[in-house]
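Hi R.,

Here's the chain you asked about this morning:
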Amino acid sequence: MLDPTMHASFIPGDPARMARLAMWSLETQINLNETADPTSAHPTSAHPTSGDPATTSADTEFIRVLLPSDSGIVEQLVPAQVFDVATVLDQLVRLHLDDPAVSPSLQAWALVARTALELIAKGRIQPGISESGQDAWAIGPLDERDRQVRAALAGWIPPTAHCVALDSAPSISGARAVTTDQPGGEAASQISQLRMMTAEEAVTGMYAAIADSLPRTAAAGTVSRQRAWHSRAAVDVSSLRPYLVGSDAAERTIVGLRLSLPTEEEAPFTIRLQVRSAVDPSQVADAADLWAGTAIGFDEHAESDLLLALRRGARLFPPLAELLNQAQPVGLEVNDAQGMALFGSLATDLGGAGIEVLIPSAMTSKLRATAHAEPPPGTGDQPPTFDLATVCELTWKATLDGEPVSEEELSALAASRRPLVRLRG
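And the predicted structure, written out as C-alpha cells:
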C-alpha cells in the first residue's frame, strides 16, 4: 500500500516492465558523506534485469538518492519501500491529486500514469526491443501534442521524483553527471561518478513501464504460441531489431502497396509504393516524391522507415525483395498469381508488418448469383398442382453491383485465361 505522504522516486528497469517505484522519507536518511562504509547498507540496483517483474508486495531496501544541499549535491542512503510499477498502477490512478496530504512526487507520478493510460486507450502502443535485446512494449507513436504533454509533465515533476542514483553506464541516454563542491575523498569521488535520470527520461521510462506491463495478462499466451511480447518473462529478440522501427518515433510512417489492375489483356499488375504518417493519416505521398524530397509532412526518418518495412514485408511477400535492390524503390510489376495473392489473407499478414495493401475501388464491386422463380410457360390454364416443376421455373442470374450480367459478359468470363477479367469500365 502506498503511503501518500512519502516521496515517490522512479527506478528504471530493463526491460521496462521491471521498473519500480520507491517510497521513501528524509526522516530516515543515512548521509553517505558521513558513513565510513557506504556499501555496507547494500543499496538497491537502479537497473533490475532479472526476477519476477510482478511481485505483489513491497521490498524494503536502501536506495541512493541525490539531493541538493548548501554545499552542492549530496548522496544519501535512505530506506524505502520498493514496488513494481504494475502492482501499484491502480493505486496511482485512483489518487486524489488535489489532496494536500499527497506528496508532490507521488502526485506527479499519478498524473503521468493517467496520461500513459490515456495514450494506450487511443491505441498508442507498439512492440519494441529494449537496450539489452529483450521484448518490450512502448507507447508510440506520439504526435506533436503528445510530445508537448510529455515535455510539460517533465517540467512539472519535482526532483524527488527522479533522484535515484544510477550507474555511470554510458547506455543511460540523457543521463547527466552529478557534481559536488565538497572536498575530495572517497565519498566525493563516488558522487562524481553517479548519475541521475533527467525528468523527461523518467517520464518516458514510466510511460514504457506501464505500456510493457498491461498487454502481458494471464490470457495473453493463449492468443499466440510465441512467448515474446506476451509472457512476463524476458525473451531475447535482439535478432529482430532490424525489423522493428523505433518505439518513440512520432514521425513513423506506414508503407502502402497501391495495387493497379492490368490495363491490357496481357499486362501485369503494378504496385506503386506510398507512405502515410502513422500520426496524421491525411499525410500521404508517393515514394517517388519522398525520394525527391517533395513529400510534405515527412522527415528524414521516413526513408529508413520505408526500407525497414520493405525488409519486413519481403519475408511475407518475396517480390518486395526486388525493391530492396533498388537505390530508391518506387514500385514494381507482379504476375497474376502474385497480384491475386494480395486480395487474400496476405494483405492481413502484411498489415501486421506495417504495410498496407490498397486495392482499386473497382475491386469492391460484388458479383453475385441469385435465384429467380418464374411461372413455367403455358401453365396459366393448367389446374393447380403440388409439383414444383409445374408450379415454377427456377433459374440463376448473375449480377454485378445489382446489375444483371449479360450473356456476352458471362462468355468473356468463361473464356478468360486470367484470374481477373475487366467486364465494365
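The radius of gyration is 31 Å.

Let me know if you need anything else.
M.
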